[in-house]
């Protein structure tokens, strides 16, 4: 789904200026939200408020209030109410910036995690490395950094990650547990969020989480808090070391928002290692957000916008993939997709894969 093309030169010129001034627009919207300007206008309703009233409500200077409000006329956050130019009222876009949870989390993620580092996009593209990560320190990828990033950055990173996966987990759980897996391998299981939900869903399942040591420390704390130490085990691993075999003996392997963290070449290697660890009756579940499976432009925009975080901050070589790209890797790794379901939660697709040699001939995806 593409952005509608502007139908006049002036529209195209305006669209181009929105790009030219995008960082300013972004910061204005964020400050209007955080400093209570949008809240003050929301309370005023359709009659709106004067700049002086907003300044009074928020404690901002008249200069600051007027500057923010006037710019926001052009940025679509406010409009004039009534005949004159004295009263300002909040627009629908302003209401979304103020109240919509996804928008809030996306903005915090962009500001706290991506904003400064994005200046290094050129360098990231040139070298295939996450050049923007240097604003926080020296690591090969964001995943080694995650456990030690500043608290606000961690908070926004996890809020972003969890917003999307939390929306899909409750829908995925009954589908995965239809087959009552007894042993489940959660590859890239992060802080144990899925593993904990699996154990709450099915009292007989045992889960092993594979991840980097920093994430497993957080996972251990969470698992302990839930009293699940006997049922959830963490195994530290660098999944980019393709000489390390995956542990065997699992009924189900699970990869959620995980393949997106790797280049296509690494995805292929990881899937081959999954294949090698699977018994004939084992299944591999892949839960991910594919931009070619979305039904609205909002979701596509969010995915394409998030893609560059991988380029510049996360690893320098992955992106938000299309389902077509991931399915090609799955096939090449000797696996087949035997069932797939779109539109779980906010934007996810769930793929159920099996070893090609074990799949029933002629079986169709359900
Ligand atoms: C985007 S998070 C997804 C977490 C979780 N599965 C979910 O759905 O919310 C990707 C996870 O993969 C892990 N990961 C990335 N690169 C890794 C590597 N080289 N070795 C081990 N784990 C890695 C990260 O630490 C992180 O926990």
TrEMBL record:
MF annotations from Gene Ontology: O-methyltransferase activity
Domain of life: Bacteria
Stored InterPro entries: BVU_1015-like_N, COMT-like, COMT_C, SAM-dependent_MTases_sf, WH-like_DNA-bd_sf, WH_DNA-bd_sf
Every O-methyltransferase C-terminal domain range: 182-334
Keywords recorded for this protein, A-Z: Methyltransferase, S-adenosyl-L-methionine, Transferase
Occurrences of domain BVU-1015-like N-terminal dimerisation-like (ranges): 15-80
Cross-referenced Gene3D superfamilies: 1.20.58.1390, Vaccinia Virus protein VP39, Winged helix-like DNA-binding domain superfamily/Winged helix DNA-binding domain
BP terms from Gene Ontology: methylation
Protein name: O-methyltransferase
Phylogenetic placement of the source organism: Bacteria, Pseudomonadati, Myxococcota, Polyangia, Polyangiales
């Amino acid at each position: 789904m593409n952005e509608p093309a502007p139908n006049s030169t002036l529209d195209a010129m305006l669209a181009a200026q929105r790009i030219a001034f995008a960082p300013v627009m972004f910061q204005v919207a964020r400050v209007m939200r955080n400093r209570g300007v949008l809240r003050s206008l929301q309370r005023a309703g359709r009659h709106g408020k004067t700049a002086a009233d907003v300044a009074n409500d928020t404690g901002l200077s008249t200069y600051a209030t007027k500057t923010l409000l006037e710019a926001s006329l052009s940025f679509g956050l406010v409009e004039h109410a009534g005949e004159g130019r004295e009263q300002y009222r909040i627009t629908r876009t302003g209401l979304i910036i103020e109240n919509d949870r996804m928008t809030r989390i996306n903005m915090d993620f962009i500001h706290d995690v991506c904003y400064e580092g994005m200046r290094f996009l050129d360098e990231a593209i040139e070298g295939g490395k996450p050049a923007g990560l240097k604003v926080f320190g020296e690591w090969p990828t964001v995943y080694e950094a995650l456990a030690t990033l500043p608290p606000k950055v961690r908070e926004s990173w996890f809020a972003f990650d969890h917003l999307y996966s939390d929306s899909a987990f409750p829908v995925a759980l009954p589908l995965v547990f239809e087959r009552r897996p007894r042993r489940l391998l959660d590859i890239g299981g992060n802080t144990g969020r899925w593993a904990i939900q699996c154990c709450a869903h099915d009292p007989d399942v045992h889960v092993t989480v594979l991840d980097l040591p920093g994430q497993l420390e957080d996972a251990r704390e969470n698992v302990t808090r839930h009293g699940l130490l006997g049922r959830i085990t963490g195994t530290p691993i660098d999944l980019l070391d393709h000489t390390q075999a995956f542990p065997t003996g699992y009924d189900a392997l699970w990869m959620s928002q995980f393949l997106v963290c790797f280049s296509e070449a690494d995805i292929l290697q990881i899937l081959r290692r999954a294949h090698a660890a699977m018994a004939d009756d084992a299944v591999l579940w892949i839960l991910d957000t594919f931009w070619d499976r979305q039904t609205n432009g909002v979701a596509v925009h969010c995915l394409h916008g998030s893609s560059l975080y991988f380029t510049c901050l996360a690893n320098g070589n992955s992106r938000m993939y299309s389902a077509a790209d991931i399915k090609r890797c799955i096939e090449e790794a000797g696996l087949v997709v035997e069932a797939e379901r779109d539109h779980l939660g906010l934007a996810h697709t769930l793929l159920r894969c099996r070893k090609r040699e074990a799949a029933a001939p002629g079986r169709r995806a359900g």
